[in-house]
Every structure is written in C-alpha cells, then in structure tokens.
Design a protein that fits this description.
GO terms for molecular function: oxidoreductase activity. This protein has 5 helices and 6 strands, in the order E-H-E-H-E-E-H-E-H-E-H. By secondary structure, it is an alpha/beta fold. It starts with 7 loop residues before the first strand and ends in a 7-residue tail after the last helix.
Length: about 210
C-alpha cells in the first residue's frame, strides 16, 4: 500500500543525562509535544539518547560499538525532529551537544539534487531547566539545526524554567502552566504545517 503523502513521522531525541527508566523532565516535555503532534496526525517515536552508546565524532558511523547509526536511521526516516534538552550550567546538556556533532555528518550526505538530506525536514526544540537561560539554549540549538539543513517553524520551541536556585522540576509540576501548554501546542501545530508544505514542495535543487 502506498504511503499517504500527507502522513508525517516525528522522532524525538531526548537528551537527558539520565538513562531509562529514570524519570526525565526532558522526556515528559517531549511527550507533551508529541501529544500535540499526534493531534495533527503525526506518528511519533521517542529515543532516550542516554540509553545508547553514541561515540564522539562528526561521522555518520564512528565504527565498532557506536550506536548512533541506529538512531540515525530513525532521524532520516522522520519528517520532524523534536530535540528535547535540559539546561546544565546555562548550556544544553552534553548529550545534546554530542547529538548535534553527529548530525553534522549529514551536511555531506546529499540527495540526487545536491541538497543535504536534512533540507526539507523540520525541527522544533523543547528545553527544561530550573534556572534562566532557555532562550539562549533554544537559540544555540536552532542555529545548529538550521546549519545542518532543518527548517525551523514559526514559534518552533517550547520551554519551562523553574525559579532560580530552587530544586523544582518540570516533571514534579501538578499541572503544566497555561503559557507553556500554549507554546507547546503552537510549536507542534506550526511544525506539522511546515513539514506538510515541504513534503508537497521541496526546496530548489542545489545543483
């Protein structure tokens, strides 16, 4: 059966420092994004990156023991990438940085028209932390993802920051603040819209 041209797939790379089955605010926020994407008819799958041995480097496959190729297959098959990162010391988590470094390899992976394979795909970002800095982290991630070729939708991020110098966490909230829920819904809605537009009409050839 031919695939519905309107169907979309999303993969969420959850960059918590904690492997499964530990609770993760980054994973919970990614799931909240997924709930909104599913409402737009998008098939979603989460990958907890700390569960994999992702070797350092900027190649698609760093050799023996490297499990990034397993994740890469899911990323290449997806129309939408959800990158969910905690903030540590005012920066994206180290797992997030490693993911970005591995995505760098896709700049040299081009289609028949000379376009990097991520061109035509959409990325959105979710960030959690208990200090200020979400805008800075989102900006860093947007820049890297756009460099690789991803398109960023309007208002394509959602985030939550708890009070400074306190231990509150997103996963411990009794309810999601209305402003955060609204941002999550907008990011998902706009990402699905842009992904469908790009699926119908790709960017011009690079050659």
């Amino acid at each position: 059966m031919a695939q519905d041209p309107e169907s979309l797939r999303a993969v969420g790379l959850v960059c918590s420092l904690k492997p499964s089955p530990a609770e993760s605010s980054s994973e919970l926020m990614a799931e909240h994004v997924f709930e909104q994407l599913r409402a737009q008819g998008v098939e979603c799958e989460a990958v907890r990156c700390a569960d994999y041995d992702i070797a350092p480097g900027v190649e698609a496959d760093m050799g023996s023991g490297d499990q990034w190729p397993q994740i890469r297959e899911k990323v290449l098959a997806a129309d939408i990438l959800v990158l969910s990162s905690p903030i540590w010391l005012g920066h994206p988590a180290s797992v997030t940085q490693r993911v970005l470094e591995r995505l760098d390899a896709e700049l040299s992976n081009t289609d028949d028209e000379g376009r990097p394979v991520m061109v035509g795909k959409v990325a959105l970002v979710s960030v959690v932390g208990n200090e200020d800095g979400a805008h800075k982290v989102v900006a860093d991630l947007f820049q890297a993802l756009n460099d690789v070729g991803y398109s960023i939708p309007a208002q394509g991020c959602t985030y939550w920051n708890g009070p400074a110098m306190e231990s509150g966490d997103y996963k411990d909230l009794d309810h999601v603040p209305e402003q955060v829920a609204s941002a999550t819904a907008a990011a998902a809605r706009n990402a699905a819209h842009l992904a469908r537009l790009l699926k119908r009409s790709q960017y011009q050839p690079y050659q």
